[in-house]
Design goal:
CATH architecture of the largest domain: 3-Layer(aba) Sandwich
CATH class of the largest domain: Alpha Beta
Radius of gyration: 24 Å
Shape: globular
Strand content: 15-25%
Oligomer: single chain
Largest sheet: 8 strands, mixed
Bound molecules: cytidine-5'-triphosphate
CATH superfamily of the largest domain: CoaB-like
Number of strands: 21
Number of helices: 14
CATH topology of the largest domain: Rossmann fold
Distance between the termini: 24 Å
Strand order of the largest sheet: 12-11-8-13-16-17-19-20
């Protein structure tokens, strides 16, 4: 547990689920953290200051003007001294203010003044969460490294069912615990991550592709950034990326190979999470192939370059992924050897609960000295953290 001796800002805004944050304040305090609660005026309509003060033994901060902390500027004090700023629950209103830089209450002002990790758990009615402005604002927050714990589907206070319920509290606590444990162990390391499935064109409208979403690779890039690395992400996915990550968009295996090759000499470690197509059409027809007069269509395929294998052992630390449907460990170990890797991350892509399109994964990590470790089924961000924890021991 990483709570002991840590300072946590718990920002509560005016959603009906505000009462749930009382449990978090209590749990984190019991685990040894100093919890400082910030309340908006709307939040106070749902939960009282006395509840939080009784639980945390710290004064609630609810005004920009009524300062209590020694510096006499509470929002700057909290923004600088907290180890993490959590916003649970976050309303559409606070999301839009933080995304757009509006500072007219104690929480928006504190969050905008901080450079500490920010975790946000939105909660609102389903239609509000689906609104185009809320979606656009959440994208801005993701681009700027805010960790979002997405709302869950289920019964909503309005009586309807939809996506808007506050994320499970135990998952929020686990994530806060994990973030509090992150150290700067990749500081100044240049990490190159590849992500997503490549698309190999058949004609001007069709391609051969695979089901990789790119989520795993993108989260590895984000977690590397949190550990202090300079991160370059070569990706075929259009997922939103933190703007501090240098993202290069590619489509084909050949483009991915080129972008990696030109950067490899400045790289300390490459993590190849991309699902690179092994085959591509021999040539691309530069207009749409018509159905008539054909009955069928034959496409000749050529093998694409094995990017990871072609990187020399001395160039950098090499981490590969093995997407397997059977004989996982044996096939993974073979790839570790044949591609001369320092570590391989093996996952079972035949299991629908985890893998390509899922938000969850379960992996085995094998290093070249033969050590094997396994994870449980966990959110992909947690898996990304576990991969980097293992990698940090190899890199230093
Ligand atoms: N890889 C690569 N270049 C390729 C194919 C794969 O760099 N042309 C990398 C992947 O990014 C991954 C690792 O090699 O890190 C293993 O990829 P995987 O698809 O599991 O295995 P393959 O080597 O393609 O072998 P096979 O498809 O026969 O299992």
């Amino acid at each position: 547990m990483n709570f002991k001796g840590k300072k946590i800002a718990l920002c509560v805004t005016g959603s009906i689920s505000a009462y749930k944050s009382v449990h978090l304040a209590s749990e984190w305090t019991q685990k040894g953290a100093s919890v400082h609660v910030l309340l908006t005026e709307s939040a106070k309509k749902f939960v009282g200051k006395a509840t939080f003060e009784g639980i945390t033994h710290n004064k609630v901060i609810d005004s920009l003007w009524d300062n209590n902390l020694s510096s006499n500027i509470d929002h700057l004090d909290i923004s600088k001294t907290a180890d993490i700023i959590t916003i649970v629950p976050a309303t559409a209103n606070i999301i839009s203010k933080i995304a757009r830089g509006v500072c007219d209450d104690i929480i928006s002002t504190t969050v905008i003044a901080t450079s500490k990790p920010i975790l946000m758990a939105p909660a609102m009615d389903g239609n509000m969460y689906d609104h185009f402005a809320v979606k656009a604002n959440l994208d801005i927050l993701k681009q700027n490294g805010v960790i979002l714990m997405e709302p869950e589907e289920g019964y909503l206070a309005s009586g309807s069912f939809g996506k808007g319920r506050l994320h499970d509290l135990s998952h929020i606590s686990n994530e806060v615990n994990r973030i509090l444990g992150i150290k700067n162990e990749l500081k100044d390391k240049n990490i190159l991550v590849s992500a997503g499935g490549t698309k190999e064109p058949i004609d001007s409208v069709r391609y051969i592709g695979n089901r990789s979403s790119g989520k795993m690779g993108h989260l590895i890039a984000e977690e590397s950034l949190m550990r202090g690395a300079n991160v370059t992400l070569i990706s075929s996915s259009n997922l939103i990326t933190a703007s501090k990550i240098k993202k290069i968009s590619v489509e084909t295996a050949e483009q991915m190979a080129y972008e990696i090759k030109t950067r490899i000499k400045d790289t300390d470690c490459i993590i190849m999470a991309a699902a690179v197509s092994d085959f591509a059409p021999e040539f691309m027809v530069d207009k749409k192939i018509k159905k008539q007069p054909r009955k069928g269509l034959e496409i000749n395929l050529k093998q694409t370059p094995d990017i990871l294998k072609s990187i020399r052992k001395n160039d950098c630390i090499k981490v590969g992924f093995a997407a397997e449907t059977d004989n996982h460990l044996d096939n993974g170990m073979d790839k570790l050897k044949s591609k001369n890797l320092d570590m391989i991350v093996i996952n079972d892509v035949s299991n629908k609960q985890i893998g390509f399109e899922s938000d969850f994964n379960q992996v085995k990590m094998v290093t070249k000295d033969g050590s094997i470790s396994s994870t449980n089924i966990e959110p992909k961000r947690v898996i990304a953290g576990r991969i980097l924890d293992k990698l940090s021991k190899i890199i230093k």
